[in-house]
Specification:
The protein has 14 helices and 23 strands. The chain has 465 residues and is α+β, with helices and mostly antiparallel strands. Helix 12 links the parallel strand 19 and strand 20. It binds adenosine-5'-triphosphate. The site of adenosine-5'-triphosphate has 14 residues, from strand 10, strand 13, strand 16 and helix 11.
């Protein structure tokens, strides 16, 4: 099947309640998106799976949930006030804004990490115009941090930033975590939370937005253990994506050139995904060295040192390896990867979201063939049985023809559908024996007739596979 277009993903997301345009009834707010009833389930499952894999199933990582608003000195110390900016150019006629580095790169001119003057020189030399073919203004550094005011009076002293990354919340809690949890190196701190960046060119659906969620780990190591930890994380992260169904051929590793590295990094790789518009960053892994802890020590005056438990005189600043996942970008990737259009034997096409069964927003649909009693009551009993005796998410759908209901469940990626029919209530031997139901597999389309008493075991077996 050819890769799906972004339009087909956006339209399915809206049609089926995964993702809606933000502030829709007011005509929207550019590049904001709201996760609908199914989107929030999918996103929560991505977060739960991540937390389970990297926090609960490991003995070396603990969690944290730090505040979005932090003392502004944090961002001075981290270098964000000074350097967290992108080169902004404007079309002199339309006033539309662009990133100078992106415009240069579109023309095959390497521009990462050049300063504004160097970019301006390249723009002039290569006679680069805006996409509307107009002249551009010289680039100026545009800081991506959102500012707001804390308290009732709008004065500079109360100015605060919305955090542009979750990482700094971890660094400022380093001493608290050492004192309370007494971890031994190597150890990590994981956090999931919102981050905000006033991106110059957001777009491509939820790929680049100004408000997004990150899933980050700061993994503290002895300085001489940094390389091994970096390599191990690269493998673990790659596995997380592939275990959850991302095809290896749609993933690749891209190493940053030395001139492209962030101010804190001694080495960075991205894991890129083949999005419908081309390869793009899905995940970043950086060796942040001891930069952040040392900066916070300098700016706060607090010691941020690790003491070797075998030698209390040996106090040092650990290095940190940072696996940084975009939660929304991961969700988008799982949506794109799951989207499948299939031709059926009868010539019809069906759209089916082939999510990994741990990610599907709904686990099982219970579908009564008719709304008539006592069939409906029997179907309710089956639903209650599954709700009370499993942890699964159960959907109950009585509206429309059974064919339409199967199509809806395929489009939302429900792995199993259980149909309760006249056989189940003992009224139609041809459909099946009394107290039997049909269980349909989303991917193979195989329908099996089983007794209600076997349901639990059958379902447990399916989720074990
Ligand atoms: P990009 O080069 O795409 O701007 P970045 O290198 O600035 O990304 P990082 O600072 O490494 O991104 O952030 C870590 C992860 O957070 C990224 O891999 C991505 O998944 C996610 N992310 C970053 N910016 C955004 C955004 N504006 N919208 C959605 N997700 C984002």
């Amino acid at each position: 099947m050819p890769a799906p277009s972004l339009d087909s993903i956006v339209s399915l997301c809206k049609r089926r309640g995964f993702i809606f345009p933000g502030s829709d009834i007011y005509g929207g707010l550019a590049n904001t998106w709201d996760y609908g009833p199914l989107g929030v389930e999918l996103k929560n499952r991505v977060k739960q799976h991540w937390w389970n894999t990297f926090v609960h199933r490991r003995t070396d990582i603990v969690g944290l949930d730090s505040a979005i608003l932090m003392n502004p000195k944090v961002w001075e110390a981290s270098g964000h006030v000074e350097t967290f900016s992108d080169p902004l150019v404007e079309d002199v006629k339309t006033n539309k804004r662009y990133r100078a580095d992106h415009l240069l790169e579109e023309q095959g001119i390497k521009a990462s990490n050049l300063d504004a003057d160097a970019m301006w020189k390249l723009i002039q030399e290569n006679k680069i115009k805006s996409p509307d073919n107009n002249e551009l203004t010289p680039p100026k550094e545009f800081n991506l941090m959102f500012k707001t005011h804390q308290g009732v009076v709008e004065e500079t002293s109360a100015m605060v930033y919305l955090r542009p990354e979750t990482a700094q919340g971890i660094f400022v809690n380093f001493a608290n975590i050492l004192q309370t949890m007494r971890p031994r190196l190597p150890f990590g701190v994981a956090q999931i939370g919102k981050a905000f960046r006033n991106e110059i060119t957001p777009g491509n659906f939820t790929f680049r937005t100004r408000e997004f969620e990150q899933m980050e780990i700061e993994y503290f190591v002895k300085p001489d253990g940094a390389k091994d930890a970096f390599d191990a994380w690269q493998k673990d992260v790659w596995n997380w994506f592939t275990v959850l169904g991302i095809d290896k051929k749609n993933l690749r590793v891209r190493e940053h050139d030395p001139d492209e590295l962030s101010h804190y990094s001694a080495g960075t790789i991205d894991i890129e995904y083949k999005f419908p518009w081309g390869w793009g960053e899905l995940f970043g892994l950086a060796n942040r060295t001891d930069y952040d802890l040392k900066q916070h020590e300098k700016f706060s005056g607090e010691k941020l040192l690790y003491t070797d438990p075998h030698d209390p005189k040996d106090k040092f600043t650990p290095y940190v390896i940072e696996p940084s996942f975009g939660c929304d970008r991961s969700v988008l990737t799982f949506l794109i990867e799951a989207y499948t259009e299939e031709e059926l034997d009868n010539g019809d096409t069906r759209i089916v979201m082939k999510f990994d069964k741990h990610l599907s927003p709904v686990d099982i649909a219970v579908l009564p063939l008719s709304k008539k009693e006592p069939l409906l009551e029997k179907a309710n009993e089956v639903r209650d049985l599954l709700m009370n005796e499993t942890n699964l998410v159960i959907d109950f759908d009585v509206t429309g023809s059974i064919g339409k209901r199967y199509r809806r469940q395929d489009e939302i990626g429900t792995p199993l559908a259980i149909t309760v029919d006249f056989g189940t209530i003992g009224d139609d031997k041809e459909q099946g024996e009394e107290d039997t139901v049909t269980i349909r597999d989303r991917d193979t389309l195989v329908q099996e007739r089983i007794h209600i008493s076997e349901l639990r075991e059958k379902i447990a077996e399916y989720w074990k596979k």
